[in-house]
Amino acid sequence: MNDQPFWQRKTLEEMTPSEWESLCDGCGRCCLNKLEDWDTGEIIWTRVACHMLDGDSCRCSDYPNRHASVPDCVTLDPGLVRSIPWLPPSCGYRLVAEGRDLYWWHPLVSGDPDTVHAAGVSVHGQTISEEGMEPEDYEEHLADWPGEDPGEGQRPVDRKII
């Protein structure tokens, strides 16, 4: 019997639909609007979030029906994961595609969907909605942190109460 978790022993293509969906850590970074420099192709992150993003949970407010409201919402598949340049460097899909392990704060590792927020990796409390905003105004809300890899991040300190 193999004791390795599925994300360490399966490719993205081999995962079941529920395994695939569970790779999302709930950070919400992919739901931020991004700008692309036409000259260099550089991806420039903003803190402007899709109007469907729930700012508290960092999840889509209507994930199963999101394409009805946001037709250009990207549905990830293994090929896209390997080819789109804007997936956050800490994204579970990207990490697995690159043969890397998930970070300690990923819900599959920690067993707690809130560790992504506690570790400061999610967009919780750091976004503004695109609702009513003109795309040309996104440049007023640029942010570097969504494109950074928080890596292992700050692990919580175990403390003994005495």
Structure description:
By secondary structure, the chain is an alpha+beta fold. It has one domain. The chain has seven helices and five strands; from the N terminus they run H-H-E-E-E-E-H-H-H-H-H-E. It has helices spanning 6-9, 17-22, 66-69, 78-83, 92-97, 107-110, 115-118, and strands at residues 32-36, 43-49, 53-54, 59-60, 128-129. The strands form two sheets. It has a three-stranded mixed sheet, with no helix packed on it. Strand 3 and strand 4 form a beta hairpin. The longest helix is centred in the N-terminal third of the chain and has 6 residues, at 17-22. The N and C termini lie far apart (41 Å). The model is unreliable at 154-162 (pLDDT under 50).
- The overall strand count is 5
Q: Quaternary status of these chains?
A: single chain
Radius of gyration computed on alpha carbons? 17 Å
Residues in helix, %: 10-25%
Main-sheet strand order equals: 1-2-5
* SSE string: HHEEEEHHHHHE
For the terminal residues, how far apart are their CA atoms?
A: 41 Å
> Helical region count?
7
Basic shape: globular
- Indicate the low-confidence ranges by residue numbers: 154-162
Largest β sheet strand count, sense and barrel closure? 3 strands, mixed
Which structural class do the helices and strands define? alpha+beta
Q: Count structural domains.
A: 1
Strand content: 5-15%
Summed over residues and divided by their number, the pLDDT gives a mean of: 90
Give a short synopsis of this structure:
This protein has 162 residues and is of the alpha+beta class. 21% of the residues lie in helices and 11% in strands. The chain has one domain.
